[in-house]
């Protein structure tokens, strides 16, 4: 939420995006210098990485008004899908290569310089095309459904979330948080499951986990970039319901030990759907919010929804180790079913909006 306010308050966003990207490069140059003198700055490295990630989040929020103004409304969903799928595809590859290089060479200086170089190249490319990032916030007027003040409260952002999805605020926020809590724990649960049930896969543990992770990435990327598929007319309520259904099916597969094929198939389906959710929501928000408040609103929603991720990981992955696989699957399946019932009960409590 704070980062969203910071991003909204910054004028001349294109200039700041370039400057902050150069700053991220400087962070890792400084880290390389420190590692050159002493190899024990691991704590400082973690701090630098955290600061760099926070800076990256601010940059991402500042890019939203630029996309809002530069991309026509009919093309925003696909543009946002491509934009959001790039880190989903690149980050696991970069992390794997980085960890492999560091573990083989123990050369933290070179690792830091590689990071610095990638940020520097990115900043240079942004500088070359800087004219494309100029955004005139005064040109964009808020829609009648949007909050037009620069100061957006948490409740304003959540109410707008309900309004653009045509759902009661409490219902849609609760369902989104619960789905995110369940989804964030899947990776850890599957790791523990494969470790404890090696017979479900014909492959060894490492290759099985690699297949699962590749399935996650492929599903998310394809879901983000493929807009004109049979699901293009499904609304946000339908997407959340389908995602919860896939999670429910996955828990049943794990409960009954149905094998790797079904794990991969349902995992792909779930991540394909989640890959569509973020671009769809961002496009809806852009259509109903002005350029001055879009960063604040998305910052609020991201914070409120993402707070469920660590909670879900601790509760469900931790629960797997404490109360066992079957009991954890029962709890998760009940929550997934409750999400579906919560969303499907909405027509009984709310008149359809014209």
Taken together, the total number of domains comes to: 2
The CATH architecture name of the largest domain reads Up-down Bundle
The helix/strand class is mainly alpha
Note the run of SSEs as H and E.
HHHHHHHHHHHHHH
How would you describe the shape? globular
Stretches with pLDDT under 50, minimum 5 residues: 140-150
Total strand segments: 0
Distance between the termini: 32 Å
Q: Biggest β-sheet, characterized? A: none
Radius of gyration: 22 Å
Question: What does the average pLDDT come to?
Answer: 83
Q: What is the tally of helical segments?
A: 14
- CATH topology term of the largest domain: Growth Hormone, Chain: A
Beta-strand content bin = under 5%
**Helical content, roughly?**
over 70%
CATH class label of the largest domain: Mainly Alpha
Give the CATH H-level superfamily of the largest domain.
Answer: MFS general substrate transporter like domains
GO molecular function: transmembrane transporter activity
Organism: Fructobacillus pseudoficulneus
Pfam families: MFS_1
Subcellular location: Cell membrane
Structural account:
GO terms for molecular function: transmembrane transporter activity. Keywords: Cell membrane, Membrane, Transmembrane, Transmembrane helix. Its main location: membrane. By secondary structure, the protein is mainly alpha-helical. The protein is 79% helix and 0% strand. The protein is built from 14 helices and no strands. The chain starts with a helix and ends in a 5-residue tail after the last helix. The relative contact order is 0.15. Residues 140-150 have low confidence and may be disordered.
């Amino acid at each position: 939420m704070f980062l969203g306010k910071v991003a909204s308050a910054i004028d001349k966003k294109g200039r700041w995006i370039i400057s902050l990207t150069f700053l991220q490069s400087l962070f890792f140059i400084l880290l390389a210098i420190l590692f050159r003198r002493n190899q024990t700055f691991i704590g400082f490295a973690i701090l630098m990485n955290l600061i760099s990630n926070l800076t990256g989040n601010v940059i991402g929020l500042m890019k939203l008004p630029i996309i809002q103004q530069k991309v026509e409304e009919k093309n925003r969903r696909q543009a946002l899908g491509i934009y959001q799928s790039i880190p989903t595809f690149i980050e696991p590859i970069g992390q794997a290569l980085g960890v492999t290089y560091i573990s083989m060479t123990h050369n933290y200086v070179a690792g830091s310089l590689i990071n610095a170089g990638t940020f520097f190249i990115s900043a240079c490319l942004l500088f070359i095309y800087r004219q494309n990032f100029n955004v005139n916030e005064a040109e964009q007027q808020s829609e009648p459904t949007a909050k037009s003040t620069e100061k957006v409260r948490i409740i304003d952002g959540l109410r707008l979330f309900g309004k653009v999805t045509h759902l009661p605020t409490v219902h849609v926020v609760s369902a989104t948080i619960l789905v995110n809590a369940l989804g964030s724990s899947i990776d850890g649960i599957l790791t523990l499951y494969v470790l404890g049930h090696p017979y479900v896969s014909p492959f060894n543990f490492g290759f099985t986990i690699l297949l699962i992770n590749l399935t996650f990435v492929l599903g998310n990327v394809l879901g983000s970039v493929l807009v004109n598929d049979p699901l293009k007319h499904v609304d946000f309520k339908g997407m959340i319901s389908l995602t919860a259904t896939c999670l429910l099916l996955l828990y049943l597969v794990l409960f009954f030990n149905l094998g790797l094929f079904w794990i991969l198939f349902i995992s792909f389906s779930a991540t394909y759907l989640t890959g569509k959710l973020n671009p769809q929501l961002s496009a809806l928000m852009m259509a109903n919010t002005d350029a001055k408040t879009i960063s604040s609103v998305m910052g609020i929603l991201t914070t409120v929804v993402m707070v469920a991720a660590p909670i879900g990981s601790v509760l469900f992955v931790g629960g797997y180790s404490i109360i066992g696989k079957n009991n954890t699957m029962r709890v998760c399946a009940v929550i997934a079913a409750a999400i579906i019932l919560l969303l499907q009960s909405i027509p009984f409590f709310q008149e359809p909006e014209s």
